[in-house]
Amino acid sequence: MGQVHAAADRALERRLRRRVSSAARRRGFSFTEALFAVMILGIGGVMVAAIFPVAIRQTQSNFEDSKAASIARSAVNLLQASVDGAEVPAENGVLRPVRDASPELWHRVKGQLIAASDPRFAWTALIRRDDNATTAQVFLFILRSRNRPVYDPRTDLEHFPDANDDTNPATLEPRLVSVEVTSGSPGLVRFRGEEEQFSAAAEGSYVVICNDQETGAANGSIYRLGNESDAASNTWQIASPGIVPENLTSATAALVGRAYANPADPSRGYEGLAQDVAVYTSFIKVN
Fold it and tell me: 17: buried, middle or exposed (CB in 10 Å: 19+, 13-18, 0-12)?
C-alpha cells in the first residue's frame, strides 16, 4: 500500500514539475518578439508626433482667419463712420492707398490701424471710387506682426528717416510696385523696377492690381504669391486664385508683404514672413 502511495506522489511531482517548467518557458519574450514590438511602437510614435505640427498650424490658421474677419468688420465700420466730410476723389476705378487718395480720411483712421484688443494684428487699406458713384470700394489688408511681438504705433505708422518723405512707406502702408502678370497654370507675377520697391515680397503676400494701365478690367484683382519661381527675374508663382483673367504687361499693384527689420531704419531692409493674413473687400457710402 505504501508503495502505491509513493508511486502516486512521484507521478504528481513529475506533473507539477512539467507545469512549472512550461510556465517558466512562457514567462518571457524572445529577442525577435521584443524587437518587433519596439519597431511597431516606434512607427506609431512617429505617426502620432507627425500629427501635432499639422494640428498646430491648422489651429493657428483658424485663429488668424477668425481674427481677420473680426478686424475687417471693425475696419469697414470705422471707415464708414470716418468718411463723412472727407474727400474721396473719383479716379475711374483706379485703386490707391487711403493715405494717398484721401489724406483727411487717412488721418482720421490712422491711429486705429493697430487692433487695440490684440496689437499683434493690424490693417491697412486701398480705396477706389468710380466716376459719379455714391459708394467707394475698400480693399483691406489684414496683417499680423511676424518679426516682432506686437506692432508699435510710434514706428509702424510713421515714415523714416523723414516723416514728410514718401520714399519709404510705413510698415502699415501698402507700397506701390510695377508688375507683369502672365496667365497659365500656375500664373506668374514678375516684379519690375528697383528692387527696393518690391523686396518686401514673400510667399503668402497679397498683390492687388491698382491700375492695369489698359482697360481697367483687371483693377481690383487679388493674387497671393506662392513660391518664387525665378529669383533672377523676380518672378513668383500665383498661389490663389489659380486663374489669371488676362496678361498684364505693366500694371501698378499694391503690396504689403514682409515688415522692416527696423522700422526706424528702413535701409536695413525687410525680414521675416509675410505679414498678410487675408484681404477683404467691401463698400462704404461717400458724399
Answer: exposed
